[in-house]
Design goal:
The chain has twelve helices and 21 strands. With about 425 residues, the protein is α/β, with parallel strands linked by helices. It has two domains: about 1-75 and about 100-180 and about 270-355, FAD/NAD(P)-binding domain (3-Layer(bba) Sandwich); about 185-270 and about 355-390, D-Amino Acid Oxidase, subunit A, domain 2 (D-Amino Acid Oxidase, Chain A, domain 2, 2-Layer Sandwich), CATH 3.30.9. It has an eight-stranded mixed beta sheet. Helix 1 (about 15-25) packs parallel to helix 9 (about 300-320) and helix 9 packs antiparallel against helix 10. About 45% of the residues are buried. It binds 8-demethyl-8-dimethylamino-flavin-adenine-dinucleotide (RFL) and P-hydroxybenzoic acid. The site of P-hydroxybenzoic acid has 9 residues, from loops. P-hydroxybenzoic acid binds near residues 50 and 202. This is 4-hydroxybenzoate 3-monooxygenase. It comes from Vibrio ostreae. GO terms for molecular function: 4-hydroxybenzoate 3-monooxygenase activity; FAD binding. InterPro entries: FAD-bd (IPR002938), FAD/NAD-bd_sf (IPR036188), HB_mOase (IPR012733), RIFMO-like (IPR050641).
Length: about 425
């Protein structure tokens, strides 16, 4: 077995792992990334598209902001459409100048991977981690296989950035972790196409046929989503069927100018809310989707991963700058406060905007009428709109607390 050594072993090369690796590298903290899939596979995954300001600032700190600043689309607002009637939520006005940036996760991943290559830090691809040793009595160890050969990495800390299906979370003993979960009775069917977006801002559409979202990746590339039942199969959705259904759910003005075209990608993602507490155990930290999942309605999944990275980067930097080990112990609590906030917002947006009515085919349910009324209440009140805007642009990151070294009393030398 080959043995390597590093300070931080990072499992997973999604946005969490890559961003953490780059920030630590900039701070002179050695790290190794181990990724199950090939680099190409990681780069080709089509996922999130909206970045909060906090994420953009982290990319700047990591030195990976050049392309984002040239190609990212700054959005000052979003539209919420209810049965075709649009309301504009002016994010900038309602939050004293904040914005979000539309820049695909695929592009973020590509920029971070390029920076990683240039950094000469070690990364292993097509190398699934199969075991984690994380006891307080011995050095932390990560074991994996590559090209049929076993490897182990000895390290101070392990960052579990390996997503919802990774090995990090299950390696925390069951009696230590508590998991909270909600599975929604629908998913999102997403379609990417090289057609100009119908609108220069995002439109979240509540509709009796089901939710729809009009998003984008650039001025020439659109990303659309449709709420579909969990039983639906992507093969049953031809491009023509998708475009027809989307037209029915968009406001009339956008439906009239919708330009259709062949899809570049089409897939169904189930919707889930999930949190694992605590987010750390001994020398292992869970980061991003490894610890929590939100339904995509609030555009929070990727942004939450970034705020975890910010917290872990801060505690590890403080530790390697000489603060006592205790400084890393605040990681989970700091993260979980922000995580639960985003979980609540994402659940709320999902509950307000989706159609839950399959059990009530001819009569709308009481719960749905409550959601209609609540959404209308928010959209017709300045303070309601402000609440939506503040959460959509993202709450500020919490700063970690310094831990003073224990001052040992001076020994008094007694001369005999
Ligand atoms: P990732 O991106 O899942 O990366 C985890 C990485 O770990 C690797 N891995 C392992 N590596 C080594 N050994 C093992 N044993 C391993 N097990 C797993 C995986 O191969 C993978 O490369 O997690 P990370 O970095 O925390 O990033 C989180 C974001 O990717 C995620 O929050 C968002 O993409 C969620 N999400 C969306 N968020 C939004 O805000 N808006 C969206 O529109 C949106 N769409 C999506 C999404 C997530 C999706 N998933 C997870 C299927 C659409 C989809 C389809
Ligand atoms: C996307 O563009 O993929 C996207 C944007 C906003 C969301 C979810 C997904 O809330």
């Amino acid at each position: 077995m080959k043995t390597l050594q590093t300070k931080v072993a990072i499992i997973g090369s999604g946005p969490s792992g890559l961003l953490l690796g780059q920030l630590l590298h900039k701070q002179g903290i050695d790290n190794i990334i181990i990724e199950r899939s090939s680099a190409q596979h990681v780069q080709d995954r089509i996922r999130a598209g909206i970045l909060e300001q906090g994420f953009v600032e982290l990319l700047q700190q990591a030195g990976c902001e050049q392309r984002l600043e040239q190609e990212g689309l700054v959005h000052h607002g979003i539209y919420i459409s209810v049965e075709g009637k649009k309301t504009h939520v002016n994010l900038t006005k309602l939050t004293d100048g904040k914005v979000v940036t539309c820049y695909g996760q695929t592009e973020v991943t590509r920029d971070l991977m390029q920076a990683r290559q240039a950094s000469a830090q070690t990364s292993f691809y097509s190398a699934p981690v199969n075991q984690i040793h994380n006891s307080p009595q011995s050095k932390a160890r990560v074991c994996f296989e590559m090209d049929g050969e076993p490897y182990q990495i000895e390290c101070d800390f392990i960052a579990g950035c390996d997503g919802y299906h990774g090995v990090s979370r299950p390696s925390i003993p069951q009696d230590i972790r508590t998991e909270y979960e909600r599975i929604y009775p629908f998913g999102w069917l997403g379609l990417l196409a090289d057609t100009p977006p119908v609108c220069d801002e995002l439109i979240y559409c509540k509709h009796s046929r089901g939710f729809a979202l009009a998003s984008q990746r650039s001025e020439t590339r659109s990303r659309y989503y449709l709420q579909v039942a969990n039983s639906e199969k992507v093969e049953e959705w031809s491009d023509e069927r998708f475009w027809q259904e989307l037209k029915l759910r968009l406001p009339a003005e956008e439906a009239a100018k919708l330009q259709t075209g062949p899809s570049i990608e089409k897939s169904i993602a189930p919707l889930r809310s999930f949190v694992c507490e605590p987010m750390q155990h001994n020398n292992l930290f869970l980061v991003g989707d490894a610890a929590h999942i939100v339904p995509p309605t609030g555009a929070k999944g990727l942004n939450l991963a970034a705020s975890d990275v910010a917290a872990l980067y801060q505690v590890l930097s403080a530790y390697y700058a000489g603060q006592p080990r205790q400084v890393v112990e605040q990681y989970s609590d700091v993260c979980l406060r922000r995580v639960w906030n985003a979980e609540r917002f994402s659940w709320w947006m999902t509950s307000m905007l989706h159609h839950f009515g399959e059990e009530h085919e001819d009569k709308r349910s009481f719960v749905e009428k409550m959601a209609d009324s609540e959404l209308e209440f928010y959209l017709h009140s300045e303070s309601g709109m402000k609440l939506i805007a503040e959460q959509y642009v993202g709450l500020p990151y919490e700063q970690i607390k310094s831990v003073e070294s224990e001052v040992k009393p001076h020994a008094v030398q007694v001369n005999s």
